[in-house]
Amino acid sequence: MSDRGEEYFLSGTDISISSLPKVSLHDHLDGGLRAGTIVELSDAIGFDLPASTPDDLADWFETSAGSGSLVDYLKTFDVTIAVMQTREGLSRVAREFVQDLAADGVVYGEVRWAPEQHLASGLTLDQTVEAVQAGIEQGIDDARAEGRVIRVGQLITAMRHADRAMEIAELAVRHRDRGAVGFDIAGAELGFPAGNHRAAFDYLAQQYFPVTVHAGEADGLDSIRGALFDGRALRLGHGVRLAEDITIERQDDESTYVTLGGLSQWVKDREIALELSPSSNLQTGAIEKWGDDLSDHPFDLLYQLGFKVTVNTDNRLMSNTTISRELALLSDVFDYDLTDLETFQLNAAAATFLPLEDREELADVISEGFDEA
């Protein structure tokens, strides 16, 4: 799948969402491949695919990922990771990843991926990071040649079910001046709390290296607590199940009372950004407590209550989506206008792992772009 296709518009207007400046905080490298690239790379290494054409393969990913289970959703990554085991494969995927972000109007992105999953062909951890960084820089140059400006940083990710978090944390810090901007843990959430990697998080805190943690997707409030207090997360990867800590009482047709629990109040008061991914949250069953339709997503509840919500894709290939598409879907369902969409982007800009001055400049770029819409 290439993200250079459909243009999306704000509901009821001729305003192109695709042309607006956007920020991407939660976007997995191994979930953002073009289907055609997978076919080509698979042919080169003799890897058998579940479908032989790019269109059929793209359909397979979207269907397989929509099972309602995070565990089943994650199985689709066996295919993408298989073609990302060489320096050439990693660099190509990273380059196209940036090209597709830029084509969708993203001006700043943070791409997360787990180097420990890309060692099967003999690369070292450092070599994988270098290969991805080379691809990112090529993609940035490609975008510049097309008149687009984009900046991209790596979120070096450890797999939460493995025991390499300290090694990966040290890898991230080692590359902090060569593309790495933050650290994450990902993978099966239930049963693998952030506290299992407390030593790595302690090290990162000592190194003043920022952290985001997947939490509140396949597990509930305890996982979020662990992300915040064991992981010292500055952002929550998804965090959608934080809504379980919010009580809504309707006294009559006109009166509704909302009470925040201690955890949700803390997240709101500290302005900890939620990396919400609407389509993905539906596919993985993260919002099954509230329903199985986008209108059931607690995104709007969290937004109306003043939480720092951001809009993300999670995995563009698996969800057949882009940032612009996610924004268009939300605007259709919740009747958001241009001001709302700008708020989501400013929230994301403020939550990036850039230095303060760069975050302020990014916010100015966003505001200027929305003013011109």
What's the tally of helices?
16
Spatially, the strands of the biggest sheet line up as: 1-2-3-4
CATH class wording of the domain at 20-235 and 339-364: Alpha Beta
Rounded average pLDDT: 95
Number of DSSP strands? Answer: 10
Major sheet characteristics: 4 strands, parallel
Within the CATH hierarchy, at the fold level, what is the topology of the domain at 20-235 and 339-364?
Answer: TIM Barrel
> What order do the SSEs take from the amino end to the carboxyl end, as H and E?
EHHHHHEHEHEHEHEEEHEHHEHHHH
Derived from helix and strand composition plus strand pairing, the structural class reads alpha/beta
CATH architecture of the domain at 20-235 and 339-364: Alpha-Beta Barrel
Uncertain residue segments:
none
**What is the radius of gyration?**
19 Å
**Percentage beta strand:** 15-25%
The quaternary structure here is: single chain
Q: Secondary-structure blueprint of this entry?
A:
Layout: E1 22-28, H1 35-45, H2 54-65, H3 70-75, H4 77-82, H5 87-103, E2 106-113, H6 125-145, E3 151-159, H7 165-174, E4 180-186, H8 198-206, E5 212-215, H9 221-229, E6 235-238, E7 246-250, E8 256-260, H10 262-269, E9 273-276, H11 278-283, H12 299-304, E10 309-311, H13 316-319, H14 323-334, H15 338-351, H16 356-371
Parallel strand pairs: 1-2, 2-3, 3-4, 5-6, 6-9, 9-10
Antiparallel strand pairs: 7-8
Helix pairs in contact: 1-2, 5-6, 7-8, 15-16
Protein name: adenosine deaminase
GO biological process, one term: inosine biosynthetic process
Organism: Subtercola boreus
